[in-house]
Amino acid sequence: MNNKRSLLQVIRPYTEVFDGPLVLIVALILALGTLTLYSAGIDFPGRVEDHVRNIMIAFIVMWIAAVVPPQTLMRFAVPLYLTGIVLLLAVAQFGLIKNGARRWVDLGIIIQPSEIMKIAMPMMLAWFFQKREGMTRWREFLVAGLLLIVPVGLIMRQPDLGTSLLVLAAGFYVIFLAGLSWKVMLAAAVAVLASLPVVWSMLHDYQRGRVLTLIDPTTDPLGKGFHIIQSTIAIGSGGITGKGWLNGTQAHLEFIPERTTDFIFAVFSEEFGLIGNCILLTLYLFLIGRSMIIAANAPTLFSRLLAGAITLIFFTYAFVNMGMVSGILPVVGVPLPFVSYGGTAFVTLGLGVGILMSIQRHRKLMQS
Q1: CB neighbour class for 29 (10 Å; exposed up to 12, middle 13-18, buried from 19)
Q2: pLDDT of 365 above 70
Q3: 200: which of 25, 102, 238, 301 is 20 to 30 A away, CA to CA?
Q4: Among 221, 176, 197, 209, CA closest to 331
Q5: Of residues 159 and 171, more confidently modeled
Q6: For 294-305, how does the pLDDT look when each residue is reduced to its tens digit (9 = 90+)?
Q7: Helices in the chain by DSSP H: which ranges?
Q8: Each residue of 324-335: b (16+ CB within 10 Å) or e?
Q9: CB burial class (10 A; 0-12, 13-18, 19+) of residue 230?
Q10: pTM for this model (two decimals)
């Protein structure tokens, strides 16, 4: 008994930083994701081992972020944002090119700077509005918009439409939560609609192809429409209860491209059916709900804006991925949170969860 008590006393300082409900929800999603990845990646040797390693790294990052107080995170906001901008400029000048895209830079280790901006962007804007708390006028929102447009523009040039949309969404959420007027948003929406012809002319051929394929994937069933057609077949063939774990024919007969990354939801749907989808959606709703509670109870404007933006980022990840796999949104290369294979995305998501835990933990410390 004494040994158990002493062990608990040793472990407690390392585990008390975690928010119990948040860790439980993430762990359940990870369990479903790992089961699905095992099935989807059965023909990819080492994929599951790499996935487990990515989970461990993400938990380490999560723990470190949970330990760091929000006040310290706020001090890192500007340096992290500026570092991200410098790295994006470096990518534009001498970045590595893979599959026609210049998204990576070799600094001894190969990194993708656009991933940094998914967290750096909301941190920077939350810092900006915290410094101007109580005096937000149209000029502050204009400056915030400029801070957002610069990295988004650099990422779009790579080109990387999916990541640029996620960074744009992350920054917009902070601006919205800071009190952006509905009239301004309505005017912006009208301006965006009016500019669509110009935007269309600026898109790359493959980006236009994705939009046209979304409208009618059967126009190119063996080319650009192949992903959407096969993923929707897999989702539909799962039925109510699914075909069972490891029994998905679309996945194991290799009809689903990118089945361990962007299109893993199609594999999950085929094997676990509508019931499995409802369970997964419920877990995501719990994740978003718990994160919203943390954001609502955050003690400072910076932590409220940052927690709110991270929460809505989780929503955006899940909504966009499921939407594109289901054929209701264009294919933009967005992973399914805590399910899709990918080291960088796991680190980013783990960092986001860790920041939420930090905000929750230090709120309790301030109240005690």
Answers
A1: buried
A2: no
A3: 102
A4: 209
A5: 171
A6: 999 998 999 999
A7: 2-15, 20-40, 47-67, 70-94, 113-131, 138-156, 161-177, 182-202, 205-215, 226-237, 249-252, 264-296, 301-326, 343-367
A8: bbbbebbbbbbb
A9: buried
A10: 0.88
